[in-house]
Design a protein that fits this description.
Elements lengths: L2 E7 L6 H14 L4 E4 L2 E3 L3 E3 L5 E3 H10 L10 E5 L4 E6 L2 E7 H23 L4 E5 L17 H7 L3 E6 L5 H10 L3 H6 E9 L7 H11 L3 E6 L24 E6 L4 E2 L5 H4 L4 E6 L2 H4 L4 E4 L1 E2 L2 H10 L2 H10 L4 E4 L1 H5 L3 E4 L7 E4 L5 E18 L14 E16 L1 E2 L9 E4 L2 E4 L8 H14 L12 H19 L2 H8 L6
Parallel strand pairs: 1-9, 1-10, 2-9, 3-6, 10-11, 11-12, 13-15, 13-16, 16-18, 18-25, 19-21
Antiparallel strand pairs: 4-5, 6-7, 7-8, 14-17, 19-20, 21-22, 23-24, 24-25
Helix pairs in contact: 1-2, 1-14, 5-7
Length: 497
């Protein structure tokens, strides 16, 4: 069985995901077979494994950092919010059922055997499992049914390090207060603190670090600076969706739907030099971009209604009507069609008119499509014709099928649901289609040439190489900031010579 170490945090967004990824990368660089694990993830950003199982993208990112193939055992429970009080529960990579928060809370005990089997199975294949917690481990109202923080640490018999976010303030109180709310057995598991997201002179922290250690009896393993690394984030807390962006030579606007999912599909555009990627949720924010993207969503019908009520639908239709490019992915692709039918009451039933920019109809069915895709873009006409023949890979996660009656099939056979291109409008079910560097680079080149811009300032970009460089940079910073030798001792690993 593998050794283990668990990363918990005093709050959501304390940096657990990135510290977990960093440790996975460091252990892998040092010659160990490392894997991430999170018993329960709540996110609308998900991924499909080679076996067709659905899991959270945070653990996919961490698996990439470890240099291994994502495996659904790394995230046996995925909660995909369907509203303020309920979620679709994905268990071992397959849809289990929709539950309210209260129903799921009462069902948690039934999940423990699934979590235990997934963890033990994964543990047999690796040297070290880096376990990530969720939210705060000191939610005393939820502790009895905890399966993701100290409850998971007990299942794995894992030592724990706790990450505190100093950038938001109150880091000493949050770390000490977390320890105060633990029982004795839980306190005994905590082997170190990490101060994360620090800006300034670390020498000024030294007296506080010593006092924290004296008060809690727990060592501070180090102080990690506020890192400028570009790594996929958890969906609901991502700064990408809310921060303002300077408009550059090429300006791409993504509609920030209320239930947006898999926004990581578009990260590639944010790191291509000369390109600005903006997430917009109003006519005022939209302005006059060079291309509009409609992303995926957990609820296509409700978000289509929102698009209509916000005035953005009419603006997008006018935008496309003057020859400007519009691209839809997954739910966004479904919205671009003529009509969406829901005969099995997947999203409330009935039918709703789409934007009418593609001659396609979508029919929702309860069976969920979860599959990896590798194909070649067909010979297409119109604005996106230069994409013809490019090989792409990605994955599909959607309810229902789309039938195209007119237009070039983007991928797949005539009339099938892989995607469609008609003039300056295109759509696809393939998440990650833009991560194929040739696709992203070609689209940027087309947009630049359309504006008569020089391409000298827009360089060819390789997303895979970029990701690897960012994982290495993350590991380098964390190595410099933390006592890695002590972390090895905490995990019970003997560092290889």
């Amino acid at each position: 069985m593998a050794k283990s170490i668990m990363v918990q945090g005093t709050t959501s967004n304390a940096g657990k995901s990135l510290i977990t990824a960093a440790l996975c990368r460091i252990f892998a660089q040092d010659g160990f077979r490392a894997a991430p694990f999170k018993s329960q993830n709540m996110a609308l950003n998900s991924f499909i494994t080679k076996d067709g199982f659905e899991m959270g993208r945070a653990q996919v990112m961490q698996a990439e950092a470890a240099g291994i193939e994502p495996d659904v055992r790394m995230n046996p429970i995925l909660l995909k919010p369907t509203g303020d009080k309920g979620s679709q529960v994905v268990l071992n990579g397959r849809v289990f059922r929709d539950m309210t928060a209260g129903e799921y809370y009462n069902y948690k005990e039934e999940m423990v055997p699934h979590i235990t089997r997934a963890y033990n199975s994964l543990s047999e294949a690796y040297d070290i499992i880096v376990i990530e917690g969720a939210g705060s481990p000191a939610e005393i109202n939820l502790k009895q049914q905890d399966i993701v923080n100290m409850g998971m640490a007990k299942i794995a018999d894992a030592p724990v390090i706790i990450v505190g976010d100093i950038d938001r303030g109150g880091v000493f109180a949050s770390l000490a207060g977390t320890m105060l709310l633990f029982d004795e057995e839980e306190k005994s598991r905590v082997k170190g603190f990490v101060i994360n997201k620090f800006r300034g002179d670390e020498k000024l922290l030294t007296p506080g670090l010593k006092m924290l250690e004296d008060i809690t009896g727990v060592d501070v393993l180090g102080v990690v600076p506020y890192l400028k690394v570009d790594i996929d984030d958890e969906d609901s807390l991502s700064e990408r969706l809310i921060k303002d962006h300077e408009q550059k030579l090429v300006d791409i606007a993504v509609i920030r739907l209320p239930r947006i999912s898999n926004f990581t599909d578009f990260n590639v555009f944010s790191v291509i030099e000369g390109v600005s990627l903006r997430y917009v949720s109003s006519l005022r924010e939209l302005g006059d971009p060079d291309m509009i993207i409609i992303p995926g969503t957990k609820n296509t019908i409700d978000d289509l209604k929102w698009l209509r009520q916000s005035g953005l639908e009419a603006r997008i239709i006018r935008f496309a009507g003057t020859g400007n490019p519009v691209f839809g992915v997954c739910g966004g692709y479904q919205m671009l069609g003529q009509i969406i039918h829901d005969p099995e009451n997947v999203e409330g039933g009935g039918s709703i008119k789409g934007l009418g920019l593609l001659n396609a109809e979508t029919f929702f069915y309860r069976e969920k499509t979860t599959v990896q895709t590798k194909c070649r873009i067909n010979s297409i006409e119109g604005f996106f014709k230069d994409l013809s023949g490019i090989e792409v890979s990605g994955y599909e996660i959607h309810m229902g099928d789309t039938v195209v009656s007119e237009g070039c099939p983007l991928t797949g056979e005539e009339g099938k649901h892989g995607g469609c291109a008609a003039g300056n409008v295109a759509g696809s079910y393939i998440h990650g289609i833009f991560d194929n560097s040739q696709v992203a680079n070609t689209i940027v080149r087309i947009l630049a040439e359309r504006k008569g811009l020089s391409l000298d300032n827009i360089k060819e970009f390789d997303m895979q190489n970029y990701k690897e460089s960012q994982y290495d940079l993350l590991a380098q910073w964390v190595r410099q900031s933390l006592d890695i030798e002590k972390i090895y001792r905490i995990a019970g690993l003997e560092k290889q010579k």
